[in-house]
Amino acid sequence: QVQLVESGGGLVQPGGSLRLSCAASGSSFRIYVMGWYRQAPGKQRELVADITIGGSTNYADSVKGRFTISRDNAKNTLYLQMNSLKPEDTAVYYCNSNPSFGYLWGQGTQVTVSS
What we know:
The protein has about 120 residues and is mainly beta. The protein is about 0% helix and about 50% strand. The chain contains no helices and ten strands. Strand 7 (about 65-70) and strand 8 form a beta hairpin.
């Protein structure tokens, strides 16, 4: 049973930075592609970025150049470095396999960008 626990969210001002972490347990070593997703109020969950087990990355256009996804396979941990944050980045951020393959979603971590 894979468990995913997100952390690192919080309240920041526009232009600020946050570093999110996702701790994975269970058979996380089997997850070939891990992604960060976010869901803002009234909107669908969207893929923000993903990364393969070998380190290849992809980013949504909305975050390209500002966010950096990384993973430490030895530690079963996924990261999202978020810089130059904008109010529109406000959302609950989740990590999961991409696609989810039925892995359960965690509770996410809230990121709020506001003055």
